[in-house]
Amino acid sequence: MEIPLSTASRPPTGSLRGAFPEGFMFGTATSAFQIEGATTEKESGRKPSVWDTFAKEEGIEPFVCLFHWDVPQALEDEYGGFLPHRSCLQNPPVVKDFEDYADFCFRTYGDRVKHWITICGPWSYAYSGYGVGTYAPGLGYSLSENQQLLEMSVFPASRHFSLLRQNAKPSFDLDLGDPGRDPYVVAKTLLLAHAAAVRLYRRKYKDEAAAQRAKDFMLGWFMEPLISGDYPKSMKALVGCRLPKFTPQESRMIKGTYDFIALNYYTANYAMNAPDQSHGKPHVARDSQVKSLTSKDGIPIGESDHESSWIHVYPEGLLDYLLYVKNKYNDPKIYISENGIDQYDDPESPLPLWEALSDYKRVSYYNKHLSILKTAIDKYDVKVKGYFTWSLLDNFEWNSGLPPRFGHFYVDYSDNFKRYPKLSAEWFKTHLRKPLPFPPSWTPDKK
């Protein structure tokens, strides 16, 4: 049946179904991809289709606005939304709630969303919602007074919305509010909520992203090609054309070429987001845009009451490290290939031999890390297959020379390199010979 264009906007007369044979079917059509949205297996059980991949390949990048004026009615009823009750003007509860909401969004969608807008049109929300009453929650002058103001307004959208409101019957008693005060209070609250979200993002999520980049630029630089045949996305984005590409043949050759992973662990650092603003010649040290810190809010990440300038005792970092590798890289077999702490002893003015041999801090260090290692195996089922201390003997350290002594055995550099077992050697030997309470706490009597 043809419907003339001139009548398309008018309801047809008669029965549409009656004009067709009995059993004729009518319906509407749609498609899953075009309307359903979520494709993550976690949310829906449905994995991405070729169209999901195709759309992502086109480079579409979302910009997400956290607040476009839709305050939950429950919060409006509880404390006035962005116009806090007078009893809480100095500490508007909506600021904390907005921060929590932003935290949820950053945490949930941050892996896909890299650009966030906190508040859309704050002027419109404050002015039209609380000054002239044309936007929700509709506070401001009465409708007759409002119309006089709007006739002088340079904002036609406000005038049009006002006409709509005049033709509607409010389903609630309109609170006129205080249009000489309320918009300014709302604007201040919006600014506080905005600042809370931004500070949260900078403090927590930019630094979390920096921590991930730090892992990518150290561990992922070499592990990711073994897993996927290519470098981490963050490296490709930040290094660009300076990062040599793998050919398809090279990628296939590298991918999967491991039987286990050997990890070194000594200490841990905090990561802080540090955009490269040098505008100078590119440098590998700046490419990750990360600054490493050993303390946060003035508190060291771990004990540092030893001579090393770079080792802070933080056994918990070993667990974090192992769980990250387990979850990120397909639960591989792992060996801890190096773990240890040094004692500074300058050969030009050496410590007394008895003091150099009494390495109680090293024994404590090993105790703590072995305890963490056992937790990783027993509680989290990390496939750790072996543990190696660093080091058997005091040795030459690459860029520090002889003063840092990591060995279980003391080497006398001034007397024909004679060797003496330290306390840690006796502890390790005893620990390996017979079962000890765990975590191992045995230490010999001091002499």
In short:
The chain is 41% helix and 11% strand.
Helix tally equals: 16
- Described by its quaternary structure, the protein is single chain
Q: How many strand units?
A: 13
Summarize the main sheet. 3 strands, parallel
Which structural class is indicated by helix and strand composition? alpha/beta
Main-sheet strand order equals 3-8-10
Question: Beta-sheet strand percentage?
Answer: 5-15%
InterPro entries: GH (IPR017853), GH_1_N_CS (IPR033132), Glyco_hydro_1 (IPR001360)
Protein name: Beta-glucosidase
Family: Belongs to the glycosyl hydrolase 1 family.
Keywords: Glycosidase, Hydrolase
What's the SSE blueprint?
Elements: H1 32-35, H2 41-44, H3 50-57, E1 63-67, H4 73-79, H5 93-109, E2 115-119, H6 122-130, H7 143-151, H8 156-167, H9 182-228, H10 233-239, H11 248-254, E3 261-264, E4 270-273, H12 284-287, E5 290-293, E6 295-296, E7 299-300, H13 316-328, E8 334-338, E9 343-344, H14 353-357, H15 360-378, E10 384-387, E11 404-405, E12 409-412, E13 418-421, H16 423-433
Parallel strand pairs: 1-2, 3-8, 8-10
Antiparallel strand pairs: 4-5, 6-7, 9-11, 12-13
